[in-house]
Amino acid sequence: MVRNLPNTPAALLLAGRIHYAFNDRTQADACWQRCVEVAPDFAEAWCSIGEAAWEHGEFERAAQHLRRALELNRHLEPKKVFFLADSLLNIGEAAEAVEVLETLDRRDPLPPFGLFLLGHAYAEQGVYDQARKRFEAALSADPKAINVHYALARVLDRLGEPQKAEFHRQEYARLKGQELQQIYESRTSLRRIDWADVRPLARECFLNAGRVYASRQRWEDAERHWRRALEVDRENAETRLLLAALYRQQGRYEEAERAERGELPASQPVAPASLP
Question: Is residue 118 assigned to a domain?
């Protein structure tokens, strides 16, 4: 894909994600670095570098790249903003974490995990009344949030409310015990999972590569990759719909019906088309 579409940001981004999915971080970083060289304003590439750094505990690097992504796209996916906020907390930049999360909260109400991060950021600054407010809001949305009970207990101690703090410590201990029991009970089912089955990942690789080719109107290559995705997983609805849409645009109605049923159509030359 990268050979066929050199200097195409979407191709470089996807290539990096495929390398990263198969634990080749060196090649992934090379693809993403090339991507930001080719397209410095492509926020998704900065995000990918930052997320990988966050996952490996490289919080300074994560914060640097995720900051840049947020500058380029103020409507960044909330999960990625959380990666930035967590990185900032880990490098002692609690005030910036508060600013980032409060800005996001004004755009989209924070889910429990976002409220937990914001409460933690306020607690790091010693603003315990605001921390308490965010932790209590998180528990209102998810009363079983174990870490929030623990964090709220510490804040309540700071606010001079030991009885309420003790209640949340007990809830933490109770929920933690339930969690450990559930982990024990799930071990048997986990042993039955085939962790070596890479078909779902392979399907996504072919599916997304087809999308990149389709965005460049390289329909033969798009079809070839979507057919491979269908070979890997005949049950995937998204693959079947994409192939069927392509075939219908080209007047290949019988093949479209077969694709919708999860059957692999016979290969034919593809004429130019445009997908909706």
Answer: no
pLDDT in tens, 135-188: 999 999 999 999 999 999 999 999 999 999 999 999 988 888 876 666 555 555
Q: Which helix (H) or strand (E) is 103 found in, with range?
A: helix 94-107
Distance CA 93, CA 256 (A): 54
Q: 276: pLDDT confidence band, cut at 50, 70 and 90?
A: very low
Per cent of the chain over pLDDT 90 is 73
Choosing from 54, 78, 108, the residue where a domain stops is 108
Residues 77 and 97 in one domain: yes
User: What is the amino acid identity at position 61?
Assistant: R
Q: Which domain holds residue 214?
A: 199-260
DSSP track, 30-48: HHHHHHHHH-TT-HHHHHH
- Do residues 93 and 15 both lie within one domain? yes
Number of domains in the chain: 3
Q: Hey, what amino acid is at 37?
A: E
Q: Is residue 273 over pLDDT 60?
A: no
How far CA 114 is from CA of 47, 72, 105, 119, 239, in Å, comes to 18, 21, 9, 9, 33
Measure the CA–CA gap between 94 and 123, rounded to whole angstroms. Answer: 9
Distance CA(50)–CA(69), nearest Å, equals 9
